[in-house]
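Thread: Modeling a multi-component assembly for a lab meeting

Hi all, long-time lurker, first post. My supervisor asked me to bring a structural picture of a complex we are working on to next week's group meeting, and I have zero experience with this. I have the sequence lines for every component (484 residues in total). Could someone generate the structure of the whole assembly? Inputs are pasted exactly as I received them:
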Amino acid sequence: MQQSNTYIITFSIILTVVLGLLLSGTSQVLGPLQRKAEELDAKKQILGAVLDGAQLKQMKPEEVLSFYESRIISKVVDIEGKEVTQNPDGSPIVAEKVNVGKNYKMAPESRMYPIYVFHAEGNPESVESYILPVYGAGLWDEIWGYVALQTDLNTIEGVTFSHKAETPGLGARITSPDVQQRYQGKQIFDESGNIQSVWMQKGEGKDYANDSDKVDGLSGATITANGVNNMLKNYLQYYSSFLSNQKSSQQSEVVAVN
Amino acid sequence: MSTETTVTEVKKPAEALLSKRRKKLISDPLIDSNPVTIQVLGICSALAVTTQMQPTLIMAISVIFVVVMSNFVISLMRNTIPSRVRIIVQLAVVATLVTLVSELLRAFAYDMYKELSVFVGLIITNCIVMGRLEAFALGNKPYDSVLDGFGSALGYSWIILAVAFFRELLGSGNVFGVPVYDSIAGLIGNDFSLARNGLMVTPVGAFIILGLIIWVQRTKTGYVEH
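Re: Modeling a multi-component assembly
Sure thing. I ran the full set together rather than chain by chain. Output:
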């Protein structure tokens, strides 16, 4: 059957409006739930850099949030490693609210860099590790993660990576525990004290236990692996002032104790 | 995308809720006209998401929901849809449903949402969805269309679940994340271990498994392509 143009246009408009309302309605209703899921996910990822994955999986959502509350203190620094407490408009900065992805679009000098300090329960002074967020580009879309450094600010305690749209089974493997475990114990500074970062190698199945700056690669996902490498190198550079400030203040404390 | 333009007309007054013909609507796509192995549709996602059982199951449920609902909606509207813009109308309905699934996953199963990422969105381009709309829902009553969609989606689902079963078992030694290989090795002794096949984790593994399934099935049913 052949309908008039008016019919077709009216039909299309009604269809568009109905479907549009349906979608925006769902988005409104589910929005708070989605943000909650995202917040929980972000905190889980931060904790994932220092906790065992299996342990984290067993925790209920409320347990994760209260554990986070009692063990993590966050702050924000700038590129020079100085602590920033206020936004340009004067409102206080919350590290958890800093969107690393949005900051990534700005020049490195004007970005804000959150730091999550993992400390012993009930004693914020006794630091166990420093967790730094990292961000970059994978093959298809953004990738991000957290790197936990031991108190020597050099040895990697653990890492966790996430991605938006890497290929499942290939690049998406950066989220799997056995890939992330490869980074444990690697060192981000070389012997002369420069940032060397840690590099995922091409090919898979080799043993890099004796190289402090190399980890086994991802077969079939070289571009994602390169993305991870660049992400780590860039962000460790950005955080280098903070790391050296922190290091020298640690040393002066040791001197004072002596 | 292969397009079937023949519209199968089925009409009969006051039929049993699950009459023989309606049962056939569901059972046919399981084996005899399976969308994946016979019509060779929906291969892309059959390869992409099947490295593990769990995301595959979520994917299967999502596809069942989208195919059934879109068949239902399009069938309800079939007499009002202007034929000149019918493809766009179908696409809009399918895209809306897929977005709904994606939003729901994001709110209630965030881990799965992250894992499946683009592939939920790609249900839109799954040829099974549009294929069923064009071939069946446009010419049949809503209830029949729902059954037809359910059958086709089920046919798709069991194939991708079968592929995922073998890929996860042979590639990672697990089934639904349960370490089967390690348990077997633990039963036999410390020196015993089963090798995992890395090929199965890559899309190539899916091609091989899918090929074998098609081979076995066609040998049994004697289906020949014309």
